[in-house]
Fold this protein.
Amino acid sequence: MLPMLTRNRRAYSHHPLLAVLFSFICSLALAQAVAPAKVSTPAGLNPIRTYIANGWDVLTRSMTRCDSIVDPKVATKAVLYLPADFPAPPAVQKLQSDCKVEVQHLPPIHQPGQTDVRSINPPGLLYLPNAYVVPGGRFNEMYGWDSYFIIVGLVRDGRLDLAKGMVENFFFEVEHYGTFLNANRTYYLTRSQPPYLTSMIMEVYQAEKAAGHSDRAWLQRAYDYAAKDYQLWVHEPHLAGSTGLSRYFDFGDGPVAEGLQDETGYYKNVAAFFLTHPDRADHDLVETGAGKSNPDAVGFGFELQLCETTQNGKKCEPFRTVSLSHDYYKGDRSMRESGFDVAFRFGPFGAQTHHYAAVCLNSLLYKTETDLTTMADTLGKKEDAARWRKLADDRKARMNQLFWNASKGMFFDYEFETQKQSSYTYVTTFYPMWAGLASPEQARAIEKNLQIFEQPGGLDMSPTESGGQWDHPYGWAPMQLVGIEGLRRYGFNDDANRVAYKFLSTVAENFRRDGTIREKYNVVTRSSETTVTAGYHMNIVGFGWTNGVFLELLQKLPSDALERLAREQTNTAPASK
């Protein structure tokens, strides 16, 4: 029934009353079709489930809504950019008149970095054909890796049309903007984000297949786009030296546009850190000023003074004028492509990100290769499947050689220029388990180290308290899902259930107090209160990927734990927002 209804959707689109009725019937049919994949939650969880269900609509944006254009990160007039030679659709023409939006066309773009985004002025929103869910708050556009975790939640909540439309938007980005973007703003045209595209494709395809609608033609289109986007990561400049592995790398230079308004003072604080910690500055700081010039100095100049308090009062050195270097800004931008902004995992403030082959990135590329193998097999492309399988096997061998530390029982990133393994313990050690490339022996060793990360509220990012939001003591929904699903994949179900319960109860407990869901949590105190000192300080309400991960973890929680979680929620009525 569902495929037939979907094919006839357009027939009712011009009749408002029929369209509403038709939409209701479609929603009911879809809910029935995917019912086996959904969880029946006890009544005590109804308030938070309702918040999430309503949240999908609150966080939805499209080219028919004025609020889609707004950018809290950059103060500028409303401009919507279309791809070169792409005629303005009727919806855009209406948006232009209804919302007083200026519409412009981009120059032709075939790959990131082809166009100097600083010449696209003012910055603006990039057109996407379908509705999409944003994270919330300052993040009022469709983000790359956020969208995977959002799509997982949409599928779990029976919102398959919206999930599929978002995947189609990424196809549009690959075709017209050169890659799966960090997000659809002009200043993000220089970088991608962790490559979850095939994971999104498989999530939607398997959900449709479970609903009785296996769309082979769509899978073929998806396969072609995913294979094209994969090429970004396996060619320069995304290659990690001669390792055969990949690195994060932003094509842009200098300070990021989105960091200059609501991250005011960030770069000055970075410069001050390197000035006071010269032993940790690796070509990141350049001294400038009167009579001094340095071609490596980029962006702003900062006039800073070092002072210390002594028994005789404050003792200060003369003011010095310094700038951050070209290499620092490349690392800063590449850190933002990684999604882990800000952490000290790749040096202070992520300044050395582009000098590392990353465990998370290469695990995702391994999964991309195995997903493309599955797609090729399904489509009858035997030679393609064999090629993808060989690429996955080769990557796995290199990762085991360079990332695995048998004595510590964890995977570590690799600094390819110095040919040294990092010593920075990080939650991304669970990525190879999630992707299925860890051996059973490696998985057991990682599980034995679970106590390094496990806290009262879930998985901690790292044991290092750097002041960055992607370090101790914070826990983030995507890393909970990666870690917990990795544990489940290798049979550590008791661990997975325990950690999942800790995070679910933390989110639910904070929701009970203030009626909101946040982007991150302090997993030590089980609180949404954060005291970030490196990077932007907010803890955004919304929140897309937390909503999605909450639903997915909830669905796989054992029934007795589910009932216990529901009972906890009835102790106090949820606060109103």
